[in-house]
């Protein structure tokens, strides 16, 4: 009877903070990861800020495609900044504690930014579809108004649909166990510590993944299938190559973004046997795309390279 009463009292205890343990299985030497992660974070910030400066200062880049690229740069910086300062604090200063409100806020922000990035990729795919398959109607369809409407829609979609993620997580009861084998507050990582049933959390996580990320990927695949079908009908191989070259940078980013999402989903089931893999992929997925996106576009896009040259030339002359 005494043991039952003691167990009942323990179950009523609500933890006041979580402890982010870092990378599971490599706690002793995980500090060595701080340097490459810090460099990736600095690269993500500097490269995306440079992209924004180039787009702002170069009049020829004031087009819908580059507006979407600028919005993507802002989203990328937001995503990286949501997780990297805390990860570096863990690795450098052993600041593993995070309050429940901060943890749930980070959980919400991560879902919002990842969903927003997926939505921007859809908008960019639609932009390329209209440019290649409906070139005469492009100026009347893909306007500045279209960019604003698409961005507002994606922002509202993700900010509203993501609200239940932290709300459902808050409703779980966290007793005694508060150590999270992760570097960030992931939904499943946090709710796995709850003492009550978390089925609804897992169901909503799957709902978000399949409904929004799945539909985004479906629209992107459809857009590029129509683009490929249209390009294959061109009589000139040179024209076909030129049309596809405008899509290569976008396709590289999409393939990396969604491939890692799928791999994370698959490896999550293997978290017990190789726990570091899904954690490391989750962290890299939130910091590598922000660092990779500007470089891929800068290398593949002639207009951006010219804009970069002009910005650097002006900066050198001013000094």
From TrEMBL:
The chain crosses the membrane at residues 38-56, 68-93, 105-126, 207-228, 249-270. Its main location: membrane. Signal peptide: none annotated. The keyword Transport does not apply. It holds the Pfam family 7tm_4. It is found in: Membrane. It is a multi-pass membrane protein. Keywords: G-protein coupled receptor, Membrane, Olfaction, Receptor, Sensory transduction, Transducer, Transmembrane, Transmembrane helix. Residues 47-297 form the G-protein coupled receptors family 1 profile domain. Putative odorant or sperm cell receptor. This is G-protein coupled receptors family 1 profile domain-containing protein. It comes from Pipistrellus nathusii (Nathusius' pipistrelle).
């Amino acid at each position: 009877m005494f043991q039952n009463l003691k167990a009942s009292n323990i179950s009523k205890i609500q933890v006041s903070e979580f402890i982010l343990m870092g990378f599971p299985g490599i706690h002793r030497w995980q500090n060595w990861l701080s340097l490459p992660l810090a460099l990736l974070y600095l690269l993500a910030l500097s490269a995306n800020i440079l992209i924004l400066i180039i787009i702002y200062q170069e009049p020829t880049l004031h087009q819908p495609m580059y507006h979407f690229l600028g919005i993507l740069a802002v989203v990328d910086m937001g995503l990286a900044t949501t997780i990297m300062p805390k990860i570096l604090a863990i690795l450098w200063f052993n600041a593993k504690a995070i309050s429940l409100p901060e943890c749930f806020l980070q959980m919400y922000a991560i879902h919002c930014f990842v969903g927003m990035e997926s939505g921007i990729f859809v908008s960019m795919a639609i932009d390329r579809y209209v440019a290649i398959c409906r070139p005469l109607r492009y100026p009347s369809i893909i306007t500045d108004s279209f960019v604003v409407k698409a961005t507002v829609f994606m922002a509202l979609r993700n900010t509203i649909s993501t609200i239940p993620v932290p709300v459902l997580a808050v409703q779980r009861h966290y007793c005694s166990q508060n150590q999270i084998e992760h570097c960030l507050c992931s939904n499943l990582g946090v709710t796995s510590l709850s003492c009550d049933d978390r089925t609804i959390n897992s169901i909503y996580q799957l709902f978000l993944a399949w409904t929004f990320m799945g539909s985004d990927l479906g629209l992107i695949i459809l857009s590029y299938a129509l683009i490929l079908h249209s390009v294959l009908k061109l009589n000139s191989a040179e024209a076909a190559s030129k049309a596809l070259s405008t899509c290569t940078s976008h396709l590289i980013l999409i393939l990396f973004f969604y491939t890692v999402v799928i791999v994370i989903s698959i490896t999550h089931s293997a978290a017990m046997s190789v726990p570091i893999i899904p954690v490391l992929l989750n962290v890299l997925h939130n910091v590598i795309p922000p660092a990779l996106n500007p470089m891929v576009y800068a290398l593949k896009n002639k207009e951006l390279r010219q804009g970069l040259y002009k910005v650097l030339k002006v900066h050198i002359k001013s000094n």
